[in-house]
Amino acid sequence: MFQGRRRRRRGGGEPTVVPDAEFRSYYGRPVLKAPVWEWKIAAYLFSGGLAAGSAVVAAGADLTGREQLRRVGWLGSFAALLASVYFLVTDLGRPERFHHMLRVLKPTSPMSVGTWILSAFGPGVGVAALRELVPARRRHTGPARLLGRLARPAGLSAAATAPGVASYTAVLLSHTAVPGWNEVRDELPFVFAGSAAASGGGLGMLCAPVAEAGPARVFAAVGAAGELIASRRMEQRMGLVREVYHHGRAGKLRRGAELLTVAGLAGTVLVAGRSRAGAAASGLALLAGSALQRFGVFEAGTESTKDPRYVVVPQRERLENARNDANQ
Hints:
It is a single chain. It is built from twelve helices and two strands; from the N terminus they run E-E-H-H-H-H-H-H-H-H-H-H-H-H. With about 325 residues, the protein is mainly α. The protein has one domain: Formate dehydrogenase/DMSO reductase fold (Up-down Bundle), CATH 1.20.1630.10. A two-stranded antiparallel ribbon has the order 1-2. The two termini are about 30 Å apart.
């Protein structure tokens, strides 16, 4: 609908009065309904990424003989996975809905593909984590011996699917009609993947001895740098929807995420290899930054549905660009 007036000349003749465009929906309602998801989905985004990042760290530690880092990685991944499933199932409202999504695989549905990726990831993490819970003196007897033989291939299979677990949630969000998510569909998977790596490496730095945490530090530094670069690239390519990422609660969350990730990255590079306290502080900063990143993106998407400008203006720009391309 339109309000206000603007004078416009018709050809070279006398001016006419036409309405000024003010974006407003009927009865003051938003063009799109806000997502019905609660904060549990944002927690699910973070915990799923942490599970994926920790699994990669644990698999690397297993292959390089770092037992304490391996233990931290697999137990952390399994705990984060359980939390992720809890947040997802409770938000769905009925636990059987998760089971129902496994009845069919739809390659065109990010939710369907993500459910199958999560289902392929979970058993390997469970087997590897269960081996870590068996006392060392019993690992070479009875069923524990078989479990020990299965743990490495199961863990490696989980690590192979971890990138999908880390990034599919970004694809899931960006394939909705929510402007704050749809407009960043090309960059958001890289932001989430970097965030997952930073959090997984951060957990290893927080809980494992400095002498064993070298791979976790490298993984965390690469992930944090990738997250910062992808996030900045995402902001540069945003249109009008950039406003929701810079203002309000979403803006505060994402500024906090950037500050914590930068601090964690600096600490990882400069002090984490020499100081146990520095490693723990850096790891904690990366974990907190990763969590705030997911909550900030979630909040920005929700906020973008409340103003019709974020729906109408990009649509008109796309139509105008299409007409210009057709006329060339």
